[in-house]
User: Which sequence fits this backbone?
């Protein structure tokens, strides 16, 4: 019997697992996919939102404001790359300047530091690529960009290093309550027992809640489509550029990413399921047009890929983070749409507090270590240090991904350390091998061979992303 079973290995479940590993508790994360960070946490804007947008006094407002410094701290401890870019919310004409002033007032009420209204010219002075049509902007200095899946992977890896168990391919299909706790059943027939269950199932949190006997909320999936541009466009802007938000969301942004690419998007369209992650010609055309409105010089010939992520929104508009009103011991961490990534460390703290109040004993774990070794330590070495390191460890001298300069040594590390990469997408998210301009055209077969070697399995059994996603079907 675990003290806590967490359902869902996205950034919410991952940060909660890490926060719980500070205490003398047995914790298990169950995830239906073959890897962690396979839901919304792998496909979003990656913005650390300043916190001017959520309505004051909501959970979103409180946890966004509290979450920004906590997230930067967690990223430092976990060695997850981020950049404090600051953001600019741009108005095009007098009509859009009124909402800007309202956002400034809201941001101040939410306790966000150093917000400032700029004229169009002042905005262009710090961001020269901005459109000449921009007449005013709200500067949000505390905003930044982070790689969302690397944060999730690092949080879960750190939690595992501190004793948390991770069960993959565990698609929860039933939850039964008895006097001692819960039996959580997977589609495979496997079960785990837990005194408490934390529902961190992203877009499926309403269904998971229903399985436990609480049908108090319904989630509305809304997709966001993106275009990702090559690093040649990565310095086109230095801030995250927003347009004035509307009822549909924060609008289309143009932003450098933590890894040096340029990202434009997202749309905000209702879709059927949280798994509707296909992109559409109409969605991508809309993203391109709106992005060009902010930054007309964007070179959209440099697009290297497109993707979509699905938000898990609830009609009330706020996060749902509370102990279930009807099922004792069930913690809901649901409707975690934007700014859920930004707020993730604060959400985890709040969730731990709720579990503590519900009777989970929170006694310090003296062996806890919040630091995780830097996955990119080799990349951060000087040329001399690299030379010396390669002499001792020749695998770091063999470059597998030419676009992103990822070595065999780094790929083997990703397959060996918590949470181990088990497929080629998993290696890609951990090392960036396959993220570059050729999108894996060159390195994929080599990555596959390394996965096969490390796991002692035939190459043919290696998948792209678990299940039946084999990379080859046989010999011709
Ligand atoms: C388009 C878009 C843009 C966004 N931009 C930003 C941004 O810039 N900044 C920001 O702060 N936030 C942003 N967000 C919000 C942020 O991405 C989410 O708040 C965050 O990723 C939610 O994490 P999660 O762990 O709750 O959900 P997920 O990452 O979806 O994780 C849930 C996990 O539960 C698993 N699961 C589901 N059902 C089951 C089951 N039955 N059994 C076992 N496992 C199950 C899933 O496989 C998944 O891995 C954006 C979201 C989207 C979609």
Assistant:
């Amino acid at each position: 019997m675990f003290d806590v079973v967490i359902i869902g290995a996205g950034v919410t479940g991952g940060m909660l697992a890490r926060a719980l590993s500070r205490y003398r508790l047995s914790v298990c994360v169950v995830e239906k996919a073959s890897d962690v960070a396979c839901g919304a946490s792998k496909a979003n804007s990656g913005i650390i939102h300043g916190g001017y947008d959520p309505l004051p006094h909501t959970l979103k407002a409180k946890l966004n404001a509290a979450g920004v410094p906590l997230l930067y701290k967690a990223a430092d401890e976990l060695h997850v790359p981020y950049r404090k870019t600051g953001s600019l919310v741009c108005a095009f004409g007098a009509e859009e300047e009124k909402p800007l002033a309202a956002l400034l007032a809201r941001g101040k009420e939410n306790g966000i530091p150093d917000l400032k209204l700029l004229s169009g010219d002042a905005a262009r002075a710090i961001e020269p690529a901005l459109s000449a049509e921009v007449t005013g902007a709200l500067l949000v200095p505390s905003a930044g960009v982070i790689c969302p899946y690397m944060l999730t992977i690092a949080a879960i890896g750190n939690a595992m290093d501190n004793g948390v168990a991770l069960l993959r391919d565990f698609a929860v299909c039933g939850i039964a309550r008895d006097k001692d706790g819960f039996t959580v059943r997977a589609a495979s027939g496997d079960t785990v027992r837990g005194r408490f269950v934390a529902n961190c199932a992203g877009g499926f949190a309403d269904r998971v809640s229903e399985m436990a006997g609480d049908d108090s909320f319904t989630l509305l999936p809304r997709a966001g489509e993106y275009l990702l541009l090559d690093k040649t466009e990565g310095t086109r802007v230095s801030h995250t550029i927003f347009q004035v938000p509307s009822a549909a969301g924060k609008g289309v942004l143009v932003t450098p990413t933590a890894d040096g690419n340029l990202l434009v998007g997202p749309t905000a369209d209702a879709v059927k399921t949280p798994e509707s992650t296909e992109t559409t010609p109409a969605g991508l055309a809309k993203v391109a047009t709106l992005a060009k409105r902010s930054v007309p010089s964007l070179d959209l010939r440099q697009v290297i890929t497109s993707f979509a992520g699905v938000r898990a929104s609830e009609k009330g508009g706020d996060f749902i983070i509370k102990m279930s009103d009807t099922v004792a011991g069930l913690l809901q961490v649901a409707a975690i749409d934007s700014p859920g990534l930004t707020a993730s460390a604060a959400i985890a703290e709040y969730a731990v507090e709720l579990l503590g109040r519900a009777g989970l004993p929170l006694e310090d774990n003296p062996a806890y270590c919040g630091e995780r070794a830097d996955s990119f330590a080799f990349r951060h070495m000087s040329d001399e240090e690299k030379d010396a390191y390669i002499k001792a460890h020749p695998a770091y001298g063999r470059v597998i991904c030419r676009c992103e300069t990822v070595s065999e040594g780094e790929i083997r590390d990703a397959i060996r350390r918590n949470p181990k990469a088990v497929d080629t997408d998993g290696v890609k998210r951990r090392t960036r091998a396959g993220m570059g301009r050729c999108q894996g055209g060159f390195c994929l077969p080599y990555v596959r061979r390394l996965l096969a070697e490390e796991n002692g399995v035939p190459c043919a059994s290696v998948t792209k992303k678990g299940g039946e996603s084999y990379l080859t079907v046989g010999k011709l």
Residues 254 and 440 are 25 Å apart (CA to CA). The first helix runs from residue 11 to 20. The mean pLDDT is 96. The longest strand covers residues 303-314.
